[in-house]
Amino acid sequence: MIDEQLTAFQTFLDELGLGGRSLDAIAQLYHDLVAANKKTNLTRITDEADFYFRHVADSLAVVSICPELLGETAPVVADVGCGGGFPILPLAWANPALRICGIECRTKKTAFIAEEIQRLGFPFASVETAQVREAARGEHGGQYDMVVLRAVGESGKFLREVRGLLKSDAPGRIINYKTPSAVEIERAVTAREAKKFGFDVIETSPFELPLNMGTRCFVILEKQM
């Protein structure tokens, strides 16, 4: 990255409480992603600046609303539809003690993530090749404090399938990475499905990713207890 871009990225990390962390693992991830993408279609984003901002910064933005993700007693997280490794790999980099499992149905993508978990040294991260519905009905059911979904579809429609991943006897949250326009389009369906399954809906204010790389907000579905 050029100096301006690197400065903007470092400032973003500082604001999240991640300043001073080595970027070696992130740089290695970029190198590995570009190399693997030549053989297997993992992502459309391979430009270096786009990778750092549209993949890594976007993935880490959830820390701004859930700073507990960086703590020693962080919630246990499921990343549903983790694709080529986002947000699971940046979140594991941000907190190597974070217990996070990626659930992804495409084998070529889970194979890449599994290799990166080993190569980059994230001891508490894992990945499972499965449809989320099957995972929630199987050994992953009731195992998580938080579920994150990034670029996987409508919040309301996914609630029926992912809610089974949350612990049944504890508060839980499902956090969807969204654009403001998607929030507007999905609001009515999300509210209807949330009411049906006993969740409250919280929408965060939109914010800009660094260097005008996009506008992001989150839809948080909190389980009523």
CATH topology: Rossmann fold
N to C succession of SSEs: HHHEHEHEHEHEHEEE
What overall form do the CA principal axes indicate? Answer: globular
Instruction: Please report the total strand number as a whole number.
Output: 8
Q: Regions with pLDDT < 50 over 5+ consecutive residues?
A: none
Helix content: 40-55%
What descriptive keywords fit this protein?
225 residues; 8 strands; Rossmann fold; 42% helix; alpha/beta
Structural summary, described in words:
With 225 residues, the chain is an alpha/beta fold. It has a single domain (3-223), classed as Rossmann fold (3-Layer(aba) Sandwich). Helix content is 42%, strand content 18%. It has 8 helices and 8 strands; from the N terminus they run H-H-H-E-H-E-H-E-H-E-H-E-H-E-E-E. It has helices at residues 3-16, 24-37, 48-60, 88-94, 107-120, 132-137, 155-162, 180-197; strands at 77-80, 100-104, 125-129, 146-150, 173-178, 199-203, 207-208, 215-223. Strands 1, 2, 3, 4, 5, 6, 7 and 8 form an 8-stranded mixed sheet that branches. Helix 4 links the parallel strand 1 (77-80) and strand 2. Helix 1 (3-16) runs parallel beside helix 3, helix 3 (48-60) packs across helix 4 and helix 7 (155-162) crosses helix 8 (180-197). It is globular, with a radius of gyration of 17 Å. It starts with a helix and ends with a strand.
Briefly say what this structure is:
With 225 residues, the chain is an alpha/beta fold. The protein has one domain (3-223): Vaccinia Virus protein VP39 (Rossmann fold, 3-Layer(aba) Sandwich).
